[in-house]
Amino acid sequence: MAIKIILTGKVSSCIFLRRLVFMNLDPCKGGFLRAEFEKMDERSSLTGEIRGKELLTGIELARDREKTPANTEATKIRDFCCEKGLLIGLGGVFGNVLRIQPPCMISQKQMEKMLEALDQAFQKV
Fold first, then answer.
1. Domain ranges of the chain
2. 0.85 cut: is pTM over it?
3. Which residue from 34, 49, 54, 122 has the highest number of Cβ atoms inside 10 Å of its Cβ?
4. Contact 46, 34 (CB under 8 A)
5. Which residues of the chain fall below pLDDT 70?
6. DSSP 38-79
7. How far apart are CA 124 and CA 89, in angstroms?
8. Which fold has domain 25-124?
């Protein structure tokens, strides 16, 4: 009897958490970020390609249109963002891809702060 109650409780908790996560998976968030990253791409000469799906985004940094990897610039951007409280990763074979992976439950205000820090980093580099 006790085992059945415990298992029922665990299943209920899993269902609740699943609903909570999927309620906050708003495809508009990913579209908003993608549009903002594309605006950044127009303003910066460093961006080579923007790829990803929904909230998971990779921004490839290149020094020129031949796509020479801009790994030192990527490291500077990552470090600047870290100072501002934004944790982003680096990836790619040459370490020139900014990996942006915000949580599913990110708010609009938090996305705007993230974009502001990224924009400042691109301007500084």
1. 25-124
2. no
3. 122
4. no
5. 1-27
6. HHHHHH-SSEEEEEEETTEEEEEEBSSTT--B-HHHHHHHHH
7. 18
8. Aspartate Aminotransferase, domain 1 (3.90.1150)
